[in-house]
Amino acid sequence: MQLNSLTALSPVDGRYRSRTAHLAPFFSEWGLMRYRVRVEVEYFLQLTEIPLPQLSKFSPDSIAPLRRIYEEFTEEDAQRIKAFERTTNHDVKAVEYFIKEKMETLGLAEVAEFIHFGLTSQDVNNTAIPLSIKEATEEMILPAFRSLRQVLVGQAREWKEIPLLARTHGQPASPVTLGKEWAVYVDRIDAQIIELERIKYAAKFGGATGQFNAHIAAYPELDWIAFGNAFVEERLGLKRSQITTQIEHYDHLAAWCDCLRRIHSILIDLSRDAWTYISMDYFKQRIKAGEVGSSAMPHKVNPIDFENAEGNFGVANALLSHFAEKLPISRLQRDLTDSTVLRNIGVPLAHNLIALGSLQKGLGKLLLNEPKLRADLESNWAIVAEGIQTILRREGFPKPYEALKDLTRQNQVIDAESIAQFIDGLSVSESIKIELKSLTPWGYTGAASALVDTLKD
Q: Is residue 38 a contact partner of residue 124, using CB atoms and an 8 Å limit?
């Protein structure tokens, strides 16, 4: 079979390719090669700035042509690297040979041996991969979260005055507004986005086992630690881990995984709540002409977008959990288990984008069914008992909680009339009775609307 969207083993490269293709420049094999080439070229350019005597003849005119090797990196270039790899059986060495070959065509053969000078493979991998993660997070993932947030903010504001029967432990509880419940998710997402923005993208860069042995052997007079810091932090925009083994310790990457998992868990919670509100008939769904909800039951309009979101966030979290637990652990100075695991780093992000797209689509199809919300509130007058007993406490009424408990736990129907009869029988002033009778299931929503107003754009 030819590899295409129908024959791909993974749905992120098959069924959902249209939603995930934008991640390919960051996390495909081609993308990893391009980031490796970028690191190697920029490292060489950093060496020319020391300057090393052997690179004294390097002309600044060659900087732009060198950078074009990765800036204009093509699929043919990637195939050339794969051809080298078939001989070397080493993917990073193949990148080195590819760049040297390019340098020969640029007339730079005499300085080509300073490509990968003093480095081990992980100096390249552990800068290339965090750089790809950083840029994908900043360019793809954070904007996607912010886009979803704006949808939620808009709906929270639209529905901030819509009263909703709350259910704690599945039982009727003090009413909220629909907009305030949406605002809960915005507030939670906001906190985690701040955490995600704060996370550092750490890189290992220090030679074979972390202390620049080869560099110092060749040029003992140079401060290679300062060089490494400048290269990683100023040139690449990453955080250099100062004391390492052969590989990055991945603690910051684990924090990135955990933060994404928390955001996904919040959005799973939202997906399940939206699904439940649809099942309670609080929401209808916009129908698209030609769509089928069930192969057997023509009437059905299933909440498949929320189900798809929940499932894909779950897959993403399973992978992120494994990454966070596995990557910080390596035998002695290094083992190779991180290498094969890191090749999958784009997969949870692909499921993230699939889920976010489905969640936004589902939210966009929601149609508020206000009569159903009002009917459920009307049939649950017992929920104003909290407000009544609290006002009675304020007035010094004896054992108000117990009095309301006796009323609301009887087997009789608790409706507006029975509440009014109860209030009329209380030994309180007429003004207090009027205050108590003003409490209704749809009006007893506290500061819900005001809380929505605190959301930022």
A: no
Question: Which domains are present in the chain?
Answer: 22-117 (1.10.275.10), 123-370 (1.20.200.10), 381-440 (1.10.40.30)
How many CB atoms sit inside 10 A of residue 433's CB?
15
The percent of residues above 70 in pLDDT, for the chain, comes to 97
On whether the CB atoms of residues 177 and 162 are closer than 8 A, the answer is yes
Tokens 């990968």 appear where? 116
Alpha carbon distance 25, 23 (integer Å) = 6
Write the pLDDT tens digit of every residue in 378-437: 999 999 999 999 999 999 999 988 888 878 776 577 899 999 999 999 999 999 999 999
Catalytic annotation, residues: 169, 294
| Amino acid in the structure at residue 448 | A
Task: Give the model confidence (pLDDT) of 181-200 as tens digits.
Answer: 999 999 999 999 999 999 99
Largest Cα–Cα separation, the chain: 101
- SS3 call for 20: helix
